Amino acid sequence: HRVTWMLFATVSVGAFMVTAVYFSAIYPQLHQSSVNQEDIHLHIMNSVLIIIDLLLAAYPYRFCHVIYPMTYGLIYAIFTVIYWSFDHSRVIYPNVTDWNKPGSTLLYIALLLFIGTPITSSICFAFYRLRLWLFVQYYGWAGMRYHSVPRISINAEDCWIFQNLHLKKKKFYGIFPSFIPFNFSSIGASITIHQF
Question: What is the block-wise mean pLDDT of the chain (196 residues), using blocks of 10 residues?
Fold first, then answer.
């Protein structure tokens, strides 16, 4: 479950980034009068499917998982340098990863990694929160019990992670779906499960 959760966070942000980069930096260079079917299938439908997935799938989305798409983006940037180094005429995306112009390429990649990725991750998180809000509006808080989503409180005094982070709050509250394979006792936490 953890691997698919990580891949879901990476692909969710990646799909929106592909759509944004293509239509902001690459599509204008093509001088097309309209969007063709290839553009729709390769660069729009991926974002549409991710929106549907974010609204329907039971994966929780955490903003702290922004590190996964950032790592993927960094690895991809390194791949483009290696790809370009064998033949300087091979550029995957002109004006985006054109290492013949290293200054503008580094600036573009830095903007994408450190500004674009967190913004896109915030958009994914907003869709996740919308899904939770819609769920509560439809089922109410009582519906959470029927869908196996317990409320868990972790006593921070007994948990070494919270002690090492020097958190001020004594309890950490959250709603965690029961399918998340996380053993709270492994971090030394005493937990209490409250059903709605």
Answer: 90 94 87 84 93 89 91 95 91 88 94 96 93 86 53 45 44 41 42 41
Q: Is the dihedral of CA 54, 60, 65, 71 positive or negative?
A: negative
Contacts of 6 (CB under 8 A, 6+ apart): 65, 68
Q: Residue 84 has which token pair?
A: 């370009």
Q: Write the DSSP string, 131-163.
A: HHHHHHHHHTTTHHHHTT--EEEEEGGG-HHHH
pTM of the predicted protein model: 0.68
Q: If you write DSSP's letter for every residue of 62-123 in order, what string do you get?
A: -GGGGHHHHHHHHHHHHHHHHHHHH-TT--SSTTTS-TTSHHHHHHHHHHIIIIIHHHHHHH
Q: What is the spatial distance between Cα 112 and Cα 47, in angstroms, rounded to a whole number?
A: 17
